[in-house]
Amino acid sequence: MQKLSWQHIGFATLFSLLVASCMLLDIAVVHDSRIMVKWFGCCVVSILFAASYVLWGKRQRIYIRIADLLVALFLIYIISHDYSRGDLSEPVLLRLAVMTLLYLIFRQSIEDNTFNTCCALLLGLTVILAVWGIVQFAQAVIYHEPLHTAVTGGFDNPAGFALTLALSLPSAVYLLGLPELFKWQRACIYTALAIMTFALLLSASRTGYLSALCTGIYTYALCGKKRRQWIGLSMMLVLLSIGLLYLFKQDSADGRSYIAFCTWQQITDAPWWGHGRYGFSAEYMGYQAEYLSSHPNSRFAWLADNVHHTFNEWLYLWVRYGIVGLLLCVGILLNIIWQHLKEVCLHGRRDVARFYLPTAFLVALLPFTLFSYPMQYPLAWVVLMMAIAMLAQHTKSVACLRAKWLLPVVSLLGVCSALPLCYRTI
Asked: What is the pTM of this model?
């Protein structure tokens, strides 16, 4: 049995606090209305995370890879775009700084093979959330409350609850694939998987169902023996599921289709550079009113409402930052996934388990980005940064820095810049 170091124990403790603050924190804190309590907790723990690396960061070499440069390019574009439009507020800077720090920390930690610990902690905390949701459902049945909005856990609606459960499913599957597990450990993981699946069913989240289906199909297609046959079958199952889930809550689906249509009208007016970070919420109602005035008898008229999100992260990115920002984001993901796939082909099936986890995270997140608003929740960003950091290990290295204290210095600068912002945002 490998002896645990203080660094490993510290990382596990801080990662537990980070994930717990993103999914379980539900207390009243006086802070800026633009930052939810979970974002506030995520920011505070992330700053502690970065500060810890000031104390124990000791790596001799840091490899700069192509994925790191692409992420930096996208970050520079977002900051310059917001600055040019006057949208670079303190909460925006705080979130960008926190996500950058998390990416750097995960990039450094993944090289130390600590993601097994991350998966176990993520799974354990998600089980707590799932039990919380099951208790809420039982209370709703006892007191005759509406069931479709009863299961929320520590979130404001079932969307965040289902997102957390769906993002944790790949962790359970990955841990089951580890050969060194004892029988009682496998039994615990199977039990956790059953509890999470049951809670996801109780959430009545269509996107959660679709995400779990995509994760299951991807797992079997990647690890099964007949991968090519599963490609066509997977597409048929996903399309059939989308059709059935549309009939499940048709009015809600029609409303989101209407929002997407109005959003497209807004995009066509500024397709290249977008309307800015707050352009959608500021201008959407005008486009909706224009459509309803020209189509007074439209079947969507009764669905009109005050909307603050497109329910599609890709359209939301496009309407805010234009086609340039959208292509940069898609280009980064496609590049690192392509490098990842080349590594899978190079190493063969013996390394499928190691390559499964980051792409499974992205597969689980994809349905939510198409039909919901997952990036409003900090846990989605934490998992995304972790997945990109894992995939970045398989991209080409362009430089090697022999700086023992480079990451601690960067972390210290991040702490010094984020603390005043955090203080002024409270």
From this structure: 0.87
